[in-house]
Amino acid sequence: MGLGCACLFALGASVAPRLVLLFTWLFTPLVTRAFHGIFIWPFLGLLFLPFTTLFYVLVYSPVYGLSGWGWFFVIIGFILDVSSYGGGAYGSRGRGSRQYQVPA
């Protein structure tokens, strides 16, 4: 029974940044301002790098672009995205090999 709750938590954690980015895109002009009206880059960010795209949108300034601290937060978002993909691969690294072992 404990695994069902962990799966729900993992599902919520993977969907949350995408929902926040989607609502930011729909209800504020921040995404359009940060990507200058181009559709494909924020869409790809929504699919593959949601934390990086969200942090970029939140720290982007139309006058200066990204400053030092802005880049810091974008890099933190990228680390979060890569660690979420890497953590899933690390957690399931031995799952396939255990299913096909022949008893001795």
Provide structural commentary:
It is a single chain. By secondary structure, this protein is mainly alpha-helical. It has one domain (16-88). 76% of the residues lie in helices and 0% in strands. It is built from six helices and no strands. Helix 3 (40-48) packs across helix 4 and helix 4 (50-59) runs antiparallel to helix 5. The relative contact order is 0.09.
Percent of residues in helical segments?
Answer: over 70%
Please provide the count of β strands: 0
Global morphology = elongated
Amino- and carboxy-terminal Cα gap: 32 Å
Q: So how many helices?
A: 6
Low-confidence region ranges: none
> SS-based structural class?
mainly alpha
- Sequence of secondary-structure elements: HHHHHH
Beta-strand content: under 5%
List the helices and strands and how they pair.
Layout: H1 2-27, H2 30-34, H3 40-48, H4 50-59, H5 68-91, H6 95-99
Helix pairs in contact: 1-4, 3-4, 4-5
